[in-house]
Amino acid sequence: TDPQNPDWILELAYSHTNLAALPLESGKGINEETLKHVAEATILKELVMALNPGDRAVAGSYANTLAWAADAQYQACSLEEALKLRIRAKELFESSARADPGNYDLKRKYAFAVSGVASVQTVTGRLELAEQNLELAISILQELSATDPSNIVYLEQEFYERLMMAKLYADTGRLESATSIMKRLESEFFPSAGMNDQGKMPRKYGVEFFLVLADIESQNGNLESAKKRLQAATQLQLRDPDSETRDIFDTQKLIQTRYQLWELSGTDNFEGFPDLPVFGQTPVGIFRSCDESDSAARMYVIANEQENASSEVEYLLARGYEDPGFMRFCRKHGLCKD
Question: Would you state the pLDDT for residue 192?
């Protein structure tokens, strides 16, 4: 009834974004309907941008929609499209932050956007660019933390970005740099009581922290220490609620833990280990996430099913998936060539 009213167009765009956000945030996998909702939200936000040129609030809303769209494309393993959307969102947030340098919320969103670009650059093998963007995100968050030390959001995100930098270093053989970062993180976020008490470490990143640390310890030849770190990761996962509530992202961490334990011990006996739930995400086709396929390849290697593992690797490489951790795994087990 009022087709040129930007307020109503914006509300309709929000509705499409929310309908896309439900499956994206649930971790149960996406489908064609999810992609349609983010596409429709993007088109509507672009229309509002045209009707309100120069409106920073509209530009910020559009950037948020682009980030959701990128997440949807990433979960469909459409990595190049995800990267384009992430870069566009980063450009919009950067422009807003530069236009209002005293606005800390805009700076935080810009840091998140930079981190989003880095994450896709990492999995597509653009490692030098990913490292540069991680450094930028860390510097912005450190600046924000210095201005508001009590802000837990800044602290947690800075922790995560530094952890991802350590992981990138570990996956590319720069163990000294990776070890240095992890030692600083451990000293800053763990109390003197030791690693069994997480202290200030963000719980949602606890498992990731121990997995990265275990990998670094293993590569440094400290196998017993690596096993202890994996045991700590397992204990955190056992504390989680009913396994049926775990999503794809939780399952990926479980499988990564299993794979690292198997690498160290050579055993596939996981008695007492958290159960792996079954999900309904499409097992093949355009909506299968790269992360899920990566996890499946590791499980097939543990089960000594090389043909199935090779099939997963073929799918990933065809999608341009060149995450350095995956490439290490792939080469180690003769599943891909340099």
Answer: 45
Q: How confident is the model at residue 334 (pLDDT cuts 50, 70, 90)?
A: very high
Of 315, 317, 319, the C-alpha closest to 337 is 317
Q: What's the token pair of residue 127?
A: 């490692």
CB-CB contact of 116 with 90 (8 Å):
yes
Residue 226: which residues within 8 A CB-CB, separation 6 or more?
214, 215, 217, 218, 260, 264
- How does pLDDT run across 69-111, given as a tens digit for each residue? 999 999 899 999 999 999 999 999 999 999 999 999 999 999 9
How far is the CA of 296 from the CAs of 200, 206, 223, 253, in angstroms?
33, 23, 25, 12
pTM: 0.89
Give 261's contacts (C-beta < 8 A, 6+ positions apart). Answer: 227, 230, 234, 267, 270
Output DSSP code: residue 275.
P
Per DSSP, which regions of 134-232 are E strands?
A: none
Please say if the pLDDT value at position 119 is more than 90: yes
CA nearest neighbour of 75 among 335, 325, 321, 326: 321
Q: What are the Cα distances from residue 305, in Å, to 49, 127, 273, 312?
A: 52, 30, 21, 11
The whole-angstrom separation of Cα 82 and Cα 319 is 12
- At 286, the pLDDT band (50, 70, 90 cuts) reads low
Q: What is the dihedral of CA 104, 69, 311, 173, to 10 degrees?
A: -20
Interior/surface letters 239-257, b for 16+ CB within 10 angstroms, e for the rest = eeeeeeebebebbbbbbbb
Over its C-alpha atoms, the chain yields an Rg (Å, rounded) of 21
C-alpha–C-alpha distance, residues 172 and 175, integer Å: 8
Q: What is the mean pLDDT of residues 210-226?
A: 95
Q: Read off the pLDDT of each residue in 206-215 and give the average, rounded to a whole number.
A: 94
